[in-house]
What we know:
- The protein has one domain: Up-down Bundle (de novo design (two linked rop proteins)).
- Helix content is 87%, strand content 0%.
- The chain contains four helices and no strands.
- The radius of gyration is 16 Å and the shape is elongated.
- The two termini are 18 Å apart.
Amino acid sequence: MWATQATERMTDDLLRERTKAFALRVITLASSLPSTPPGRVIENQILRSGTSVGANYRAATRAKSTADFIHKMGTVEEEADECLYWMELIVEAGLMSQAKIADLCREADEVLAMVVASIRTAKKRKP
């Protein structure tokens, strides 16, 4: 049991660090978007969703129950997926090349996969 808790704690710490680093990278991306009407709209949207990933993950780690954790992690999942949507629009609207944001998109995919796996694990453990 103790080994499982230690592993979960390491995973929590890793995901906490990654979601915060992700938010900082999203801030950098948003700051580099062009100052055009579409650029400003997407800048605001991606800032909101990208920084929300880490903030909501932190809230999930303070959940009062498994059901609360699952609910809050669902919000993290939605925000990470929304951030991916905005990055797709950035490329498709020609605001930035795919090559410039490919690594950040990959990180968003990885964070999203980790979040979904956490939700699945929590659902299996839920009484």
